[in-house]
Amino acid sequence: MYRRRRKPPQAEQFSFDSFLDVVANVVGIILRLILVAWAGARSYKGDKIELPFAPPTEQVQQLAQKAPPPENPFAGRIREEEGKLAEAKSMLTRRLEELAGTRLERSRLEGENALARAELEKLESEKRALVSVKSPEPTPEAEEAMPEPHKPSKKLDELTERIGKAREQIEYLGKNSKPGKVHRWRTPISQTVQSEEIIFEIRENRIAAIDIGSMLDEVQESLRKAGEVLQNQWVMEGTTSPIGAFRLKYTIERERPPGLLGEAGKPDDRARFRYGLTGWEVLPLDPKRGEPLEQAMKEGSAFRRIVDNLDAKESAVTFCIYPDSFAAYRQVRDMLHERDMVVAGRPLPFEAPIAMSTKKGTVSRGQ
Q: Are 92 and 126 members of one domain?
């Protein structure tokens, strides 16, 4: 039987005419859709839509307005500090003007004093020359015949009177040319005291020194023995021996484990631990302790013996002041400021003790 031989499959060839037909059809469809949408839009007449409620126009306007920026919480404090700064600047300007006027007046008085001294020396030299002239004593008739300015007795009396007036003027100028006391007001900026701190108490206008260094040295001796006591307890309290008019009550505590609050019973005596001084309080022994202000300001007083031997570069003085002694504090502060000493003031209520606590903290700030 004769079989027809099959032709091998051939790949379809690309037809450009068919591609153009497809493109023309797609463009035509798009143009028809555009025309339909345009015609429908022109024939549409929209109706007003009534809302079931009136829009809150006032609230919308309020929201549309730009909300003011929130006020700075420190604006009041800033304005207050700016006012204080402006007042301090004006006070400083007045002080500088007064100081400049004082210096000008002092220079003028010193110049007048120098001129008066020169005039006095000139008059005294003329007097010495007049007295040292050796000439025969003129007769009364001859002295009367002389011109008035050339009479020896008249000229000597005139020179003596002028010398007396010159001396009075020099004495007056010497008293008034001395500069007055000018207090240097420190800048109202303080810093933490990093040097050796000497503590005084001012109460009832009496100044008493607190030898806190010697008391803390005694506390250090107790710290060496506190480890044995704190094996079985959390807190150890003690009191130093009297030093001057005060003694020190101190507290040494054992470090508690993290998360342990309050009293947790007896500590573990086999565990390792750390401990240290956590607070102290100065206990006065004499109600009339210290020196009155007038006596303390004199040379040789207990207060002066301490402050006169301090180095301004290595020491700072802290005054614990009670409400009845602020005037006394200002007086001793001004005296120490004249020596360029750093002074710190710590006001205290009448019932408050002089104390320190690591939990609450206490650091002097001085000017």
A: yes
Q: Compute the C-alpha angle 320/323/325, nearest 5°.
A: 70
Helix (H) or strand (E) holding 181: none
- Cα–Cα distance for residue pair 226/254, rounded to 1 Å: 9
Cβ–Cβ under 8 Å, residues 199 and 244:
no
* 219: Cβ contacts below 8 Å, ≥ 6 apart: 238, 240, 248, 250, 277, 280
Question: Which tens digit of pLDDT belongs to each residue from 229-267?
Answer: 888 888 889 999 999 899 999 998 888 876 655 556 677
Please tell me whether the overall predicted TM-score, pTM, comes out greater than 0.70 for this model.
Answer: no
Number of domains in the chain: 2
Domain containing 156 equals 83-176
Q: Which residues, listed in sequence order, are joined to residue 191 by a DSSP beta bridge?
A: 366
Q: Are 55 and 64 in contact (CB under 8 A)?
A: no
15, 18, 23, 26 alpha-carbon torsion, rounded to 10°: -150
